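Private note to self, pasted from the team thread so I don't lose it. Backbone tokens:
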């Protein structure tokens, strides 16, 4: 795939370039701030952007705001956000929009190469890839804990897997239950959370994340 990287740490940026190149991907640009990221995407939109959250000049949320702009201006470009933190305000905005081709990983996952590459492939394919810790923190900030309290333990397990972007088949394998059981739990989750379910994987994740960000 064709990629653009935005990371202000030279060591990590160059390490990612080398890793992705060795995996057979084409790195179109590797930049150190959000302004250069947007410029690079405008010049030659890639398949996926991998962007840090905190970059110069303020080292707060420049990368995440750039990710939001990319999603608005170039909706076909996948975005995989990398951070040591969950910046809740803009993360919620990112994840409650269209979640096709969106991911958010904590940087600890980068050292787990297979998980990082798997997330990248999922985002490039138009799916979602969310770090379990990101999901946990977003779950923790919701004001609808009364609705979550309606869920059974198994339904909570399925919800957590759904919010990470896993398909029904993958959830069944990960939780060691049948796919029909996953579908049953999924329907129950949407009923109990008073969500309007949609057809297809990405719509389901979108509905869950809209609830988490409310």
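Design output:
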């Amino acid at each position: 795939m064709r990629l653009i990287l935005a990371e202000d740490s030279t060591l990590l940026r160059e390490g990612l370039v080398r890793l992705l190149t060795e995996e057979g991907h084409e790195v179109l640009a590797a930049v150190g701030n959000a302004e250069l990221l947007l410029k690079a995407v405008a010049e030659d939109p890639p398949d996926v952007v991998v962007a840090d959250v905190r970059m110069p000049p303020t080292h707060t949320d420049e990368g995440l705001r750039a990710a939001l702009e990319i999603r608005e201006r170039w909706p076909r470009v996948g975005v995989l956000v990398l951070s040591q933190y969950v910046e809740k305000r803009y993360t919620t905005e990112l994840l409650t929009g269209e979640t096709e081709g969106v991911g958010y990983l904590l940087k600890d996952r980068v050292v787990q190469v297979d998980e990082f590459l798997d997330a990248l492939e999922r985002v490039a394919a138009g799916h979602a890839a969310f770090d379990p810790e990101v999901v946990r923190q977003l779950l923790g900030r919701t004001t609808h804990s009364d609705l979550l309290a309606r869920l059974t333990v198994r339904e909570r397990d399925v919800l957590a897997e759904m919010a990470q972007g896993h398909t029904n088949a993958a959830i069944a394998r990960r939780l060691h239950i049948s796919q029909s059981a996953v579908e049953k739990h999924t329907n129950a989750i949407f009923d109990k959370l008073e969500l309007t379910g949609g057809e297809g994987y990405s719509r389901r994740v979108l509905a869950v994340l809209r609830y988490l960000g409310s």
